[in-house]
Design goal:
NAD(P)-bd_dom_sf, 1-deoxy-D-xylulose 5-phosphate reductoisomerase, metal-binding, about 15% strand, about 375 residues, binds nicotinamide-adenine-dinucleotide, binds magnesium ion, magnesium
Length: about 375
């Protein structure tokens, strides 16, 4: 047996996935790769699997099986396809799993990793938004470890004195404000997908880039923080910090406010989770405070960005409200990226779906998936002009 940490990367071809591959590849002395999972990008997936000598490569899209098989012939790397194979990949023995599939599609495989007690680097925030309570209960039950990869939550995790939980007054999530931070609603009404995904500080996948532009990303992160750190909604603040240098803060009762800083490069929080409990080197640019010179802060604008109110309302409502909000947002973002709706329609579709779908208590994952499906149907009908 090698002493190397076994690693599985769910969503290896995405933005977080490729950054994780980059870090793993640098340290073959520390890591060996069990499985790589992607939706359909066979070319990138096969190249990663060869490079990292993965034992298994999986595509969720069954139609891509033949191409993946052909690309990996003669390598000895196992190949599989389909949603069942994605979950099976997460069940394989790897001490550390990166959950970096986008959206609620990541819930089942992330849970599979949690249920075998793995250490899970969690980028896939939608998992916690739609099933936070159930997920945290499973983590507890199976002795798994969730390490936040989202930069804000990694920051909080690094300065969060868990044994002083009752001495924590609040946590403060920073938000870049996205590409439309200073733009009017009139401007936002006509923006294109290209404008929305052009984030000023971070390079990310399309869905989270649109979420950053609408600030739904911060709304989802509020719900994520609530579950990860067991903090009530009214003790989680959001402050806009356009430089994205302070990644988030924790305020204690004695007036101390602890923050984590770094350049806006996801390889730092990914490296923190990958190396944990040790620190490993990451190739992110070093922070040069004198060159940055100025850090600024402003309150978010609830009128131009209704997403923050919608997320707070869903969190307060409890039950399935956040799962419905998340599913409606996924459908609306896809429709916006497909040029079927305008940018401002995203929030109104989410609001109408949360109001229109009857909420319920979530007692198991099947309940989550049923509410997710119902919300997707409802939001799609609005988009198709049926409501
Ligand atoms: P992305 O779109 O670049 O990548 C998504 C990955 O998931 C791809 O590998 C894709 O093949 C895979 N995938 C999609 N659907 C799948 C399915 N049904 N089954 C299996 N694999 C599937 O997205 P990203 O920007 O890397 O974001 C991934 C997650 O990390 C999201 O939840 C996002 O909110 C979160 N996150 C991303 C960043 C960032 O900087 N990109 C920062 C914080 C959090
Ligand atoms: Mg974030």
């Amino acid at each position: 047996m090698s002493g190397r940490k076994g690693v599985t990367i769910l969503g290896s071809t995405g933005s977080i996935g490729c950054n994780t591959v980059d870090l793993v590849e640098r340290r073959p002395d520390l890591y060996r790769v069990e499985a790589l999972v992607a939706n359909s990008r066979v070319d990138i997936l096969a190249e990663q699997a060869r490079k990292l000598k993965a034992r298994l490569a999986v595509v969720a899209d069954e139609g891509a099986y033949g191409a993946l098989k052909a690309a990996l012939t003669g390598t000895g790397i196992e190949v599989a396809a389909g949603p069942g194979a994605v979950v099976a990949a997460a069940e394989r023995p790897a001490e550390w799993v990166m959950a970096a599939i986008v959206g609620a599609a990541g819930l089942a495989p992330t849970l599979a990793a949690v249920r075998r007690g793995a250490v899970v680097g969690l980028a896939n925030k939608e998992c916690l938004v739609c099933a936070g309570q159930l997920m945290m209960a499973e983590v507890e039950k199976h002795g798994a470890t969730l390490l936040p990869v989202d930069s804000e939550h990694s920051a909080i995790f690094q300065v969060f004195e868990a044994d002083q939980h009752d001495k924590i007054e609040k946590i403060i999530l920073t938000a870049s404000g996205g590409p439309f931070r200073t733009k009017s609603r009139e401007f936002m009404a006509d923006v294109t997908p290209e404008q929305a995904v052009a984030h000023p500080n971070w390079s990310m996948g399309a869905k989270i880039s649109v979420d950053s532009a609408s600030m739904f990303n911060k709304g989802l992160e509020l719900i994520e923080a609530h579950h990860l750190f067991n903090m009530p909604e009214d003790r989680i603040d959001i402050v806009v910090h356009p430089q994205s240098v302070i990644h988030s803060l924790v305020a204690y009762v004695d007036g101390s406010v602890l923050a984590q800083l770094g350049s806006p490069d996801m390889r730092t929080p990914i490296a923190y989770a990958l190396g944990w409990p040790n620190r490993i080197e990451a190739p992110a640019p070093k922070l040069d405070l004198a060159a940055i010179a100025t850090l600024t802060f402003e309150a978010p604008d609830p009128v131009r960005f209704p997403s923050l109110r919608l997320a707070r309302e869903a969190l307060r409502a409890g039950g399935s409200a956040a799962a419905v909000l998340n599913a409606a947002n996924e459908v609306a973002v896809a429709a916006f990226l497909g040029r079927r709706i305008g940018f401002l329609d995203i929030a109104s579709i989410v609001e109408r779906t949360v109001a229109g779908v009857a909420h319920c208590a979530l007692t198991c994952i099947d309940d989550v998936m049923a509410q997710d499906a119902e919300a997707r149907r409802f939001a799609s009908t609005i988009i198709d002009g049926g409501r």
